[in-house]
Structure formats: structure tokens, C-alpha cells
Specification:
The structure is a single chain. The chain has 7 helices and 4 strands. A two-stranded antiparallel sheet has the order 1-2. A two-stranded antiparallel ribbon has the order 3-4. A hairpin with a 2-residue loop joins strand 3 and strand 4. By secondary structure, the protein is an alpha+beta fold. The chain is globular and about 50 Å long. It folds into 2 domains: 35 residues; 114 residues, no CATH class.
Amino acid sequence: MTVQRQESYGRRSNAVFCGRIALIAALAVLAPLAEATTSERVVVNRFSGLAIEGFDPVAYFVTGQPVRGLPEFEASHDGAVWRFRNEGNRASFVAHPEIYGPRFGGYDPTDIARGVAFAGNPLFWVVSGDRLYLFGLEANRDAFVANPERFLAPARTRWPVLEETLAR
């Protein structure tokens, strides 16, 4: 091999190596999303059994931000374990899970509108019309905020059919 060809080969090997490292890093970042199952009526982490990754669903309404729940304040509902920041939040949820639980079981409403159940991320959220919505992508949340009814009308229509296909 000529020197020029050897140098070219070396650069190509480095590019392939860097590409593989980038792919591994991306998979490590996206792994928690893959852990959420899409065969449940409520988004649940398949390893821990926690709904919405252990975030307190009531805290979105009370503090206006996602807050991790604590193991000492748990409740079971819809086949999932929900965690809360305090006893008051737990009591509010137990009394009214239909209000405080994320709409569409925590699935992304923009995807539900397209007829697909994709798990929402508790860090991409919005409270709209007194309901909590979780989104799989930040871009989906931004599109939803710009025009909620564009997504809610078809999502409400498609959700009953999708919900029936999800496990009980």
C-alpha cells in the first residue's frame, strides 16, 4: 500500500470507530425510553413497575414542575405503582386519579392522534385544560402547545381503539 492509501485507510477506520462510539452513547441515552412498555394502558417502567418513571403526577399541578416521588408515598392504580412527594399528593391522586393521572395513560397525544401508542417522557410535559400530557419528544410537546386541539380531537377519537389493543 502506498503511504497515501495507508493514511486514507487510517482516517476511515477512525471515522468508523467514532461512529460506533456515538451510536453506543446515543443508545445509552435512549435506553430509559425503551424501558417503558407500550403494551400497558398506563406507561410503566417494565423493570421497576413505576408509572411515569416514579414522578409525582400531582406535583405537575401543585409545583408546576416534575418532581420525583418517594418510595414511602406509593399507591397502586391501573396495574401500576405511582409515587408521590408527600401524603397530601398521594391522597389527592387516590381520590381523583382521573384528574391527576396523565391523559392517554402517559402516551404521547401527538402520536395517539396518528394512531400510535408511544410512551411519553415525564420531562416533556404540559398541563392543558386541567389535564397532564406527557410527550415522547420535545418537538411533539412544542407542536402540541402551539395548537392543542389539532392533536386532541383525533387523539380522543383514536384512543379508545388503541386502549383496547393495550394489555389489561
